[in-house]
Design brief:
Subcellular location: Cytoplasm; Nucleus
Radius of gyration: 23 Å
Order of helices and strands: HEEEEEEHHEEEEHHEEHEE
Family: Belongs to the peptidase T1B family.
Protein name: Proteasome subunit beta
Largest sheet: 5 strands, antiparallel
Catalytic activity: Cleavage of peptide bonds with very broad specificity
Keywords: Cytoplasm, Hydrolase, Nucleus, Protease, Proteasome, Threonine protease, Zymogen
Oligomer: single chain
Helix content: 25-40%
Strand content: 25-35%
Distance between the termini: 78 Å
CATH architecture: 4-Layer Sandwich
Length: 260
């Protein structure tokens, strides 16, 4: 039976050895997701996939990437799942504390600024977050949309897409987005953009979830629609927009004669 005892490192000065060989480089890991949000005349449409990946391994297909901060604020998560989930849920606590202290709802600008300040304090420490914060402000009677990065930067805009599949989503959004979209057309645009991103990006997939932010708060339009069902739907259709008409129209793709 081997005797128990302390095992010492095979070097003269362990303390100096650790200091000399310690790596200051933060851990790098592959991330995959697609989240998007855009403002239009009917509010804000928010859509995301549900896949979580660990490098090339698909860890989950059921991740909830839209964080319901409160009844009128939503946040999205892209990057490290733990970082985004923790800090956005912590943001919901800060928003509730603001309501209790001030006796009024926190604005979207204030909420996004709180999150940006947190990220600024932890910049350079390995946070992996690319989030969007959106909601309705009763003080201005309008919706707002902000992008908050893990370096503390904060940008207000009308259209954002975050994640490894955002390039493909932007291709659809930049082509067909207009301010005067109807609610149904905005929903179709969000679904189509997410579908194309997941179809081409290996880090995106699972199911699509779509939320609508409006004057009365937010509504969950699609709980979980499988991307395979979207593929069967969109593979035989094309999106055609007539610039002379106020809305988008989905039309059936023309049949093409098969040739040998």
């Amino acid at each position: 039976m081997a005797s128990l005892g302390l095992v010492f490192p095979d070097c003269e000065d362990p303390k100096s050895f650790v200091k000399q060989n310690a790596s200051s480089k933060l851990m790098q890991f592959d991330k995959g997701t697609t989240t998007l949000a855009f403002r239009y005349q009917g509010g804000v449409m928010v859509a995301c996939d549900s896949r979580a990946s660990q490098g090339s391994f698909v860890a989950s297909q059921t991740v909830q990437k839209v964080i319901e901060i409160n009844d009128y604020l939503l946040g999205t998560m892209a990057g490290g799942a733990a970082d985004c989930s923790f800090w956005e849920r912590y943001l919901s606590v800060l928003c509730r504390m603001h309501e209790l202290r001030q006796s009024k709802r926190i604005t979207v600008a204030h909420a996004s600024n709180l999150l940006a300040n947190i990220f600024w304090e932890y910049r350079g420490r390995g946070l992996q977050c690319g989030t969007m914060v959106t909601g309705y402000d009763d003080s201005t009677d309008s919706t707002s949309l902000y992008y908050v990065s893990d370096d503390g930067s904060r940008i207000q805009g009308d259209l954002f897409s975050v994640g490894s599949g955002s390039t493909y989503a932007y291709g659809v959004l930049d082509t067909y987005y207009r301010w005067d979209l109807s609610d149904q057309d905005a929903l179709e645009l969000a679904k189509r953009a997410i579908y194309h991103a997941a179809h081409r990006d290996g880090g995106s997939g699972g199911v699509v979830r779509v939320y609508h932010v409006h004057k009365n708060g937010w509504s969950k339009l699609i709980q979980a629609e499988d991307f395979f069902d979207l593929h069967k739907h969109y593979s035989n259709e094309i999106l055609k927009i007539d610039p002379t008409k106020p809305h988008n129209h989905m039309i059936q793709a023309p049949e093409v004669a098969q040739t040998l």
